[in-house]
Amino acid sequence: MTNAMAQPKLGGSKFGSARLLLLLGPAFVAAIAYVDPGNVAANLTSGAKFGFLLVWVLVAANVMAMLIQYQSAKLGLVTGKSLPEILGERLRPLGRRAFWLQAELVAMATDLAEVIGGAIALNLLFHLPLPLGGLIVGLISMAMLAVQNRFGQRPFESVIVFLLLVITVGFLFGLVINPPNPADAAAGLLPRFEGSESVLLAASMLGATVMPHAIYLHSALARDRHRPLKLSPSGSDGHSAVEEFSPNLLRRLIKATRVDVVVALLLAGSVNIGMLLLAASTLRGVEGTDTIEGAHQAISHSLGPVVATVFGIGLLASGLASTSVGCYAGATVMSGLLKFKVPLLLRRVISLIPALVLLSIGVDPTWALVISQMALSFGIPFALIPLLRLTSDRKLMGEHRDGLPLRLAAILSTVLIVALNLVLIYLTLSGAE
Fold first, then answer.
1. pTM recorded for the entire structure
2. What residues does each domain of the chain span?
3. What is the tens place of the pLDDT at every residue in 77-111?
4. What is the maximum span of the chain, computed from C-alpha positions, in angstroms?
5. Residue 331 — left, alpha, or beta (φ > 0 → left; ψ -120 to 50 → alpha)?
6. HSE of 245, CA atoms in CB hemisphere, 13 A
7. What distance in Å separates the CA atoms of residue 163 and residue 322, rounded to the nearest whole number?
8. CA angle centred on 371, ends 365 and 88, rounded to 5°
């Protein structure tokens, strides 16, 4: 089934709540990037080491994420093209290939973290060896991508939304058993640090939240859902064109996209904040909680095996969903920048190899997650800065160009994100304590 066949009919003047619900979905797929195993590692470590100190970082990061993902989706809706496609048209051949190379390395680092996170979850739940767990995660993600290939975007979105709900229950269930002190949690909204390690963790949490592949992908998801490609009217030249919408309908779709982004990112942000609150109230001061395995064991001791099992299921769902979305994003970047498509399933096989090699040679999985997050930090400016420039371009965006308040907020967000990620890179490479 093609994407065009999978779309709800958008014609007509009515735009009620039922129709609005049909338009939700793309942002939920992009939101998976915000609850991946890298986030789990960063949030648990922050709560275990510093309690509620860095709650404000996650709140700020989530607000920035809403802004960025909305801009990405709006770009795809207004132009009918993904961010990689627009960059591919504007860059010279050498620059286009160089840009693709850095984006591909970021995609590989993303996939590495997701597969390793899923392997850790299978090890915690079923005591499977990490290499076998990584292979199983890869095979299941291949099945999920096959759904997208065979049935289109809507069923794939449904699978991802289901996994997001499993992630939410898995990571927030412990808060029901052991809720944090509201006053202590509220105190974490005051921006402050306690030494260089807290700065490093804050940058890592932000880097794990605002991920480049989600920025590239969301523009394509919004475009494919609402502006499916179709043959030109003549059909003789074999070219495709995006479906043109009336100005009123386009404005309504952008409004629906805002709702989609806000709801999806509120859910993802709640999961992240919930993980930190759980760690702060349960793991603070407990030895060995600087790894996911150690945190899982501490949760089991503190809250019981049922909570620990539900947490493990949430981690597994996180790995499965995020590795599928990451592979999808990598294919989007390649086709947009190089005009060259590799079948999703073949790409899944190729991108699985580095993770399986690292797991097979005995590399510490938590260390691999940390290094992958640092690698992602290098790619953030390459995605954010072009997005900001394009959505501010009146010639490209027309009446939907970012207004002055939105542009100023986007500039501030970009500066803060890039600066904190440079701090993360410096502190990681220098080994600062």
1. 0.88
2. 17-430
3. 999 999 999 999 999 999 999 999 999 888 888 88
4. 69
5. alpha
6. 22
7. 10
8. 120
